[in-house]
Design goal:
This protein is α/β, with parallel strands linked by helices. 37% of the residues lie in helices and 14% in strands. The strands form 2 sheets. It has a 7-stranded mixed beta sheet, sandwiched between helices. It is globular.
């Protein structure tokens, strides 16, 4: 599994197999998912550094934001960077936020609600230039963009198995053990499994299943990316031709699978209820049962009516063109019935 995952992340791809197998397990910790991985790193580093400053963004997953809020409550300073209307952070603002005691920068590779992809290459360069540890939550990026850790060195990276069609309840935490500063205090003590980084019996079926999911993706990665992108583009082409319908987030810097669409002046909860066979959400899939406005779209500066009029569509390996047609037909009918005056 470690071998397949490392190939999936393009890690040490130039090494021969013997040298590769010798040390690869030192770089991976298997967890229950990205939420645990995030908590493991952030809290483990806080116990090591005792005090200091963390930089992240306002559009991170709640696992990062909530953990940072907790650390702030016990004395750590946290800077939440703003994003522009496309959902991208500003490089200058990141650099200006760095302080003498900044020990961690955490910026997600891709946003789970909008698919917006940050310039992780440049952010990792900034972190290295200032000798700061860099963590990236790649949960929404894994399997959707080409992650190459030989070309984009990071100190920590996490993703969840189920996001790449692997088993639920399995997470992968990559730790750059070539950097001695990545050592941190373990949060679960016991049998000293996984190089004493996370004690407890390993979830062997979940780990093997995640490795197999990586192997399947590796075998047809580029073709699958283009197929899903074609479906997303087809969906957007149909929906965005409707007057009053807009795309949220960057049209260029994003993953192949997510379309966050605003249906102007319509309460999207009603559209979702009227199309019960279509699985979509108004924000993160993790918060699909919450009625709160998306913190991601809020951070992007959208007004209240746009927040309540937006739907997140997420496509994957098992979606088809026929399903795209069904989504369009369903939503155009319900939208037209709600606001016929907006349509021509």
């Amino acid at each position: 599994a470690s071998y397949q995952i490392s190939r999936f992340l393009n890690l040490n791809k130039k090494q021969d197999l013997r040298a590769f197998y010798k040390g690869i397990d030192q770089h991976f910790v298997f967890t229950s998912g990205s939420t645990e991985s995030i908590n493991l790193v952030f809290k483990g580093l806080s116990m090591k550094f005792k005090k200091g400053h963390i930089i992240t963004s306002k559009t991170e997953h709640k696992a990062v934001i909530s953990t940072c809020n907790y650390l702030s409550s016990i004395g750590f300073e946290v800077t939440f960077l703003d994003v522009n209307e496309e959902g991208l952070i500003d490089e200058k603002e990141l650099i200006n936020a760095i302080k003498a005691d900044t020990f961690l920068i955490s910026i997600m590779w891709a946003n789970n609600e909008t698919g917006v992809v940050q310039d992780i290459n440049r952010i990792s360069e900034i972190a290295r230039e200032h000798d700061i540890l860099f963590f990236t939550d790649a949960t929404a990026a894994a399997g959707k963009v080409n992650i190459d850790l030989d070309e984009t060195p990071v100190d920590f990276l996490c993703f969840s198995g189920h996001k790449i069609h692997g088993p639920k309840g399995t997470g992968v935490l990559y730790i750059n053990k070539n950097n001695p500063r990545t050592n941190f205090s373990p949060q679960i003590h016991g049998g000293e499994q996984q190089n004493n980084m996370r004690s407890g019996t390993l979830n062997i079926p979940g780990i093997v299943g995640t490795g197999v999911a990586c192997e399947i993706l590796n075998s047809n990665f580029n073709n699958e990316i283009q197929r899903v992108k074609h479906l997303r583009d087809l969906l957007e082409e149909k929906l965005l031709r409707i007057p009053g319908v807009y795309l949220n987030g960057s049209k260029i810097h994003r993953t192949c699978n997510v379309a966050n669409i605003c249906f102007s002046e319509v309460e999207t909860d009603n559209l979702i209820i009227q199309s019960p066979n279509i699985a979509v959400s108004t924000g993160s899939a993790c918060n699909s049962q919450s009625n709160k406005a998306s913190h991601v779209l809020t951070a992007m500066g959208f007004e209240k009516n746009r927040l309540s009029s937006s739907i997140r569509f997420s496509l994957g390996r098992f979606n088809t063109i026929r399903e795209i047609e069904e989504v369009y037909e369903s939503y155009i009918n319900h939208y037209q019935n709600s606001f016929n005056h907006l349509l021509v």
